[in-house]
Amino acid sequence: MIRDEDIIRIEEPKLSLAERLYLPQILGGLWVTLRHVFKRKITVQYPEQRRSMYRDNYRGVHRLNKDAQGRVKCVACFMCETACPAHCIHIVGAESPWPDREKYPVRFDIDELRCIYCGMCEEACPVDAIELTPLHDMVGQSRAEMVFDKEKLLGVFDQTRDLKPPKNPRIVGYAIDNPDYQLGEGPGRVPLTPPLSPKSRGQGSGGRGQSESVPAPDPRALPPGKESR
Amino acid sequence: MRINATVIPSLAMSNSLLATLVLVVAVFAVVMGIVTYLTLLERKVAAWIQDRYGPNRCGPLGLIQPLADAVKMLFKEEFIPARADRWLYLIAPMWIIVPALVAVAVVPLAGTVEIAGQFVRLQIADINVGLLYIVGVGSLSVYAVVLGGWASNSKYSFLGGLRSTAQMISYEVPLGLTLLSLVLVSGGSLRLEEIVAHQSGYWWGWLPRWNAFTQPLALVIFFTCMLAESNRLPFDLPEAEQELVGGYHTEYSSMKFGMFMMAEYAHVLVSSMVLAVLFLGGWSFWGLRDEQTAWYFALAKLAVLLGKAGLIIFFVMQIRWTLPRFRFDQVMRLAWKGWIPAALALLAANALLLYWMAPALVYTLANVALLALFVFAGQFSRSPVTGRQLSLRAVESELQTTNP
Asked: Do B51 and A42 touch (CB under 8 A)?
């Protein structure tokens, strides 16, 4: 039941003579549209132009962060897989080859088609190993191609480390932050990568100057789905 | 100015059969080509008005887009509703495109051209009843719309077809009356070539003697009727997509739908050319005369005609993105209470002025005066009260009596 006091009565606006004559109003409207024909166009020409408005917390493609030594940061704790509401993360953990942690992921697959990009994996991760990046345009020609494995996710990190530097300062006191800690060349060891950025180099290790450099990833390899698995 | 047949020998004779055949093929190809690209222009204009670029991915500036659309149309699934009247359903899209295309036959495209010593008039059919032919052929397209709406056996199509019938029949009346007064003032001939010739020459040595200057009211009426006849906004009630899904072509798919679209643009193109011929002097332009029969002059004349038609088409498209759609009673009101009396008054005024042999400026003044009169009078005509408004008033008065 509508109460009377809830009814809002609106008076029709009084039209001036020019408005009532109709024809001047048509001409006015035509003038407006004609001006717009010659106005600057605001469409973003997408593949060539991109909006630079991405926030740090944009939730796009996942990446698996690497630590200062270029190893995968993930400790295969399965927190993200448990937290994932879409059940799109599949981890196979194994005993870590490195002494600073117990486990590491042998396989780390994310079904990017199944993911709902809620970011709960990122929230759940205790070591900030998994993060969502501002990359949002990934393509693939098959469903299997859109299941990103560990290498691909690490590759996403290489592509986006300039775009989105690892957000948290690393936990000091970790074994990997010890400058004296040496990574051997033994079996299963990951090759060394240079520190992430000058900033992290300053606060991180002091000693290792001549670490072998890894070539920067080709920016044209942007759709990660194009990589061969 | 009457045409002197001895000055221009081509006017005395008609084209040879071969020349006519070549012309038919060429005109058909050119018209269809332009129609295809009008779809692109429509999208471009829409985009520009909305501060966008429009299609620009297919080829440079999106110029391949119409081809892509055509391929898409051809490869789409062809669907015929189970309860549709199959034959009528199939006839309608063919029928709608024919009148739009054959109307171009009488449009004088570019005067006369001399090819290998022979004079060829660039007009497919130079018939004495050219204007009647256009009106007659143009009104045939309403059948296709009705057929399409009826044969689809769908309520949306049916409503669209009904609306279209009422609208097109209504707007043919002021259209015909306008053409009558136009014939009066341009020498009493129904031949389009002669109407064009009547508009050649200049006032004060520079202002072309176009009918648009002496008959502005006729131009306004003709233009609105043209929009209504080709179902363009603000008169696109037959296919009002917000209320009727797609109107009479709701149930059509694939290239059959494409033919309805092509027919719409062909209609727009042809009626713009006719408007250019009737009001803007056809191919006449500063520096172009009847006697110039070299091929490059013919090309220039064709370019002038198409340029004028192009401006009109742009205007038609701009109107589409400027004005909202009329309500159906407003459409009918404009035709029967607005333009038909106005066209009748204009006809009477023109006849009187012709009888008094008034100078051209008086025609203009009479037109402007009549236009102002009718626009002003429009305010005092009572707007119709619909049933819903009546019941609203009843509710309001009841409310006022219950709580003062």
From this structure: yes
Q: At what angle do helices B130-138 and B86-102 cross, to 10 degrees?
A: 150
Paired tokens of B212: 């648009």
CA distances from B304 to B50, B300, B328 (A): 29, 6, 37
Q: Is A38 within a domain? A: no
**Cβ–Cβ < 8 Å for B137, B106:** no
Q: Which of B323, B375, B399 sits opposite A21 (nearest CB)?
A: B375
**What are the extents of the domains in chain B?**
9-402
Report chain B's mean pLDDT, rounded to a whole number: 82
Burial of A94 (0-12, 13-18, 19+ CB in 10 A): exposed
Share of chain B above pLDDT 70, in %: 92
What's the rounded Cα separation, in Å, for the pair B245 and B253? 13
User: Tokens for A197?
Assistant: 């950025």
Q: Which residues contact B230 (CB under 8 A, 6 or more apart)?
A: B264, B267, B268, B271
A196: in domain: no
Asked if residues B105 and B131 have their Cβ atoms less than 8 Å apart, the reply is: no
What mean pLDDT is predicted for residues A3-14? Answer: 82
| CATH number of the domain to which A69 belongs | 3.30.70.3270
Q: Which residue has the higher pLDDT, A183 or B365?
A: B365
How far, in Å, CA of A75 to CA of A187, rounded? 19
User: Angle B158-B164-B165 (CA atoms, 0-180°, nearest 5)?
Assistant: 90
CB neighbour list of residue B194: distance below 8 Å, 6 or more residues apart? B3, B186, B187
Cross-strand bridge partners of residue A107: A92
What is residue A138's predicted lDDT score, i.e. its pLDDT?
Answer: 81
Judged by CB atoms closer than 8 Å, whether chains meet at A33 and B52 is answered as no
E strand map for chain A: 62-64, 89-95, 103-111, 130-132, 147-148
B17-49 and A23-37 helices cross at what angle (nearest 10)? 90
Q: Which residues pair with A62 in a beta bridge?
A: A132
Number of domains in chain A: 1
pLDDT of A137 strictly over 90: no
Q: Which residue has the higher pLDDT, B270 or A44?
A: B270
Interface of A with B (CB under 8 A): 4, 20-23, 26, 29-30, 32-34, 36-43, 45
- Which residue from B minimizes the CA distance to A43? B52
- Choosing among B322, B323, B376, which should be mutated to test the A contact, i.e. which has the most A CBs within 10 A? B322
CA of A180: how far to CAs of A170, A176, A177, A183, A202, in Å?
17, 9, 9, 10, 15
CA distance A218 to chain B (A): 26
B48 to A32: CB separation less than 8 angstroms, yes or no: no
Cα separations (Å) of B388 from A111, B197, B327, B383? 56, 54, 14, 14
| Alpha-carbon radius of gyration of chain A | 27
CB B199 within 8 A of CB B276: no
pLDDT one-digit tens code per residue, B229-271: 888 878 877 777 777 777 788 888 888 888 888 888 988 998 8
pLDDT at A210 over 80: no
**Domain range for A150:** 51-166
The answer on pLDDT for B11 being more than 70 is no
Mean pLDDT estimate for chain A: 74
